[in-house]
Amino acid sequence: MARDARSDSRETVVSASGSEDENDPLVCPLTGDLFECPVLLLQSGETYEAGALALALAKEPGVDPWTRLPFSGAPATAPNKAVAALARRRRKEGGGGGAAARTAARR
Length: 107
Hints:
The chain has helices spanning 50-59, 81-92, 98-106, and strands at 2-5, 11-14, 38-41, 46-49, 77-79. The protein is of the alpha+beta class.
């Protein structure tokens, strides 16, 4: 797995097949794994895994962990029910995604 540095300072995980997880709306950009508990950060409109977002905001409050854009006030989040439902469906159909799926495929 290689990392491709982008001009906007984001990093994109590129799988062995060449597909970029950044483009998979069911994969958290912070963990690289299929969403289990996705939440929308209302200040930026980005969706993250709830636990990963909490950890990132504890380390760097007031900064979106993926876009790196600052925001004021307490972070406001809401469950992203649509993404959660789609991720559950993909998991049920056996089509994982993200780093966990790549690790399992290598075994």
